[in-house]
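2024-03-11 09:14:02 INFO worker-7 job=invfold-0412 stage=load source=structure_tokens
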């Protein structure tokens, strides 16, 4: 039987660099699947439906909530975002690790449902730099940028209950740190023991 994959949950204030880091990490692991969330927010120019998000109308989203299709969902910055149960269970049951970008409420719900989940919080080097990145990204209106930035300081307090904190000052280094977390978790004895047992006699002496 295939071992079940791990769930990596990435959170952080808007503009911290979560998507940029995940994009770099995804290419490095053939055994890592990305959990594509559903959202009622409009796609940004470079975003692709089914790849970055499943973009749905608010009505469709509510219907999915009513049918119990989400393991968790939340209203974030005025739009609805949710993780479908299928997107995680299909991948982990096939032995894939799963990485996802969800807010702090979502992370708490995922941890409650998938107990061994690994929670990673991405921090910007400073609030000033976060503000610069949000503005330079140019994907939100000035008002939306302000709303996201105003939530940042409060949102960052939640990093205290995460398993790992990664400062995204230099993007390459932050992506390497995220890869190291994944590799370290893949090396946990509880994950490797079944394979070691197959290869060696591990009876206690
Ligand atoms: P998030 O997914 O957390 O909202 P993004 O990955 O979209 O954040 O990053 C926000 C903006 O900051 C993007 O324009 C991205 O290119 C830029 N960015 C990400 N990491 C860095 C970094 N280490 N240094 C400078 N700019 C960065
Ligand atoms: P963005 O609009 O910048 O892509 O994402 C806004 C926020 O929604 C981010 O904090 C991101 O982590 C969060 N988010 C994205 N997908 C989900 C999801 O499926 N569930 C929850 N709870 N939050 C999500």
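2024-03-11 09:14:09 INFO worker-7 stage=emit residues=205
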């Amino acid at each position: 039987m295939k071992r079940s994959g791990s769930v990596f949950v990435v959170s952080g204030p808007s503009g911290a660099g979560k998507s940029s880091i995940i994009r770099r990490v995804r290419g490095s692991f053939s055994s890592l699947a990305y959990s594509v969330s559903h959202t009622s927010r409009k796609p940004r120019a470079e975003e692709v439906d089914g790849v970055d998000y499943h973009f749905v109308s608010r009505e469709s989203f509510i219907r999915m909530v009513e049918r119990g299709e989400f393991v968790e969902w939340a209203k974030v910055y005025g739009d609805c975002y949710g993780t479908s149960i299928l997107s995680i269970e299909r991948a982990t049951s096939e032995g894939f690790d799963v990485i996802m970008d969800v807010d702090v409420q979502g992370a708490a719900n995922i941890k409650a449902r998938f107990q061994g989940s690994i929670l990673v919080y991405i921090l910007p080097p400073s609030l000033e730099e976060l503000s610069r990145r949000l503005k330079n990204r140019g994907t939100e209106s000035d008002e939306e940028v302000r709303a996201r930035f105003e939530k940042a300081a409060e949102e960052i307090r939640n990093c205290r209950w995460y398993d790992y904190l990664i400062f995204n000052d230099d993007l390459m280094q932050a992506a390497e740190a995220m890869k190291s977390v994944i590799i370290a978790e893949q090396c946990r004895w509880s994950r490797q023991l079944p394979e070691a047992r197959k290869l060696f006699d591990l009876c206690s002496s």
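2024-03-11 09:14:09 INFO worker-7 stage=report msg="Residues 171-186 form the longest helix (16 residues)."
2024-03-11 09:14:10 INFO worker-7 job finished
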